[in-house]
Write a structure and sequence with these properties.
The structure is a single chain. By secondary structure, this protein is α+β, with helices and mostly antiparallel strands. 31% of the residues lie in helices and 33% in strands. Strands 1, 2, 3, 4, 5, 6, 8, 9, 13 and 16 form a ten-stranded mixed sheet that branches. Strands 12-11-10-7-14-15 form a six-stranded antiparallel sheet, covered by helices on one side. It starts with 7 loop residues before the first strand and ends with a strand.
């Protein structure tokens, strides 16, 4: 059934394990209603529900789709949009009201979970920008060729493990800072380096590496100069530091100076080929994915999604 083109579709994704989902939606709903926003809303219960409901909104003709959620929900949404024909996708505008365990892509644009009114006011102004998506192309364990798009970053190695731990501890602890600290302590009991072979521009990296971040966006502080609209990927390759340097690196990450660490080697490129990353976990936009089989490539597609940005 077709809908009024001015009427938005809102997908609300409650935080798992927080126990206050309905109160948060009521706060958002009060702001929307006070500004007389025309919308219909649906609610997801899990990741599979996000993809199904985004497809439903697309198929029912909504031209504005707002995700009330975090990085993983946005990731599901853009992957659904990339499945449809370009002419359909070009008519759809995606927006976000941050409400996730990790909201780094929203935070890049200065959308704050604590200021719903400001976010809604910006969305109403409907300032649209075409943004890039990164894309990882790989072979799964069944030998099938696959791909997955990302807004923020791909992590390979230790940080993928930490992000997975952080998501789990955030659901239990409720605090972004506390969950990061607990995850950082837990990481000391995990493998700290991985044998890797990477091709980046004309360079070949063949050595043990602690973690790699490939960002179309800020990459949770690891690719702080990356922007999702220049057709490039920023890459940070982190070699295994001594334990004192490791804690110094964590401090630099928390204070926004990650690239100043001497064990961090930055690149800017259009493609990264991961020839080997033995037993290294891979995370996409904060969510752990099934480890690819064999080599895989990570590239960028320029200006493929319409995104609502602040005034």
């Amino acid at each position: 059934m077709a809908v009024d083109s001015k009427r938005g579709g809102i997908l609300y994704c409650p935080k798992r394990g927080m126990g206050r989902g309905q109160r948060q939606w009521q706060r958002i709903q009060r702001v929307l209603d006070a500004r007389r926003v025309a919308y219909d809303h649906v609610q997801s219960e899990n990741a599979e529900g996000v993809e199904r409901l985004v497809r439903m909104l697309i198929n029912n003709g909504y031209k504005t789709i707002i995700i009330v959620g975090g990085d993983s929900a946005l990731n599901d949404a853009v992957n659904c949009l990339m499945e449809v024909e370009k002419r359909v996708r070009d008519e759809i505008v995606l927006g976000v009201i941050p409400n996730g365990v990790i909201n780094d892509f929203a935070r890049f644009w200065d959308f704050r979970e604590s200021d719903i009114a400001q976010t809604v006011d910006w969305l109403i102004k409907r300032r649209v920008r075409k943004i890039d998506l990164g894309c990882i192309r790989y072979t799964n364990q069944r030998g099938e060729k696959c791909h997955r798009y990302f807004l923020n970053c791909v992590n390979i190695g230790l940080i993928a493990d930490i992000m997975n731990l952080r998501r789990q501890t955030r659901s239990l602890l409720g605090s972004r800072t506390l969950s990061f600290m607990v995850s950082t302590v837990l990481m000391l009991f995990h493998r700290l380096e991985y044998k890797m072979h990477l091709r980046i521009n004309t360079d070949e990296v063949r050595r043990k590496v602690m973690t790699v971040c490939i960002g179309s966006g800020p990459g949770y502080g690891q690719t702080p100069n990356a922007v999702p609209y220049n057709g490039m990927l920023d890459v940070s390759v982190v070699y295994h530091p001594e334990i004192t340097q490791l804690f110094a690196g964590i401090w630099l990450l928390l204070t926004g100076r990650f690239l100043n660490h001497r064990n961090v080697h930055p690149y800017r490129t259009r493609e990264v080929e991961v020839v080997e990353a033995r037993r290294a976990l891979v995370g996409i936009d904060g969510r752990l994915m099934h480890t690819p089989k064999g080599a895989y490539k990570i590239g960028v597609e320029q200006e493929v999604i319409n995104f609502l940005i602040p005034d």
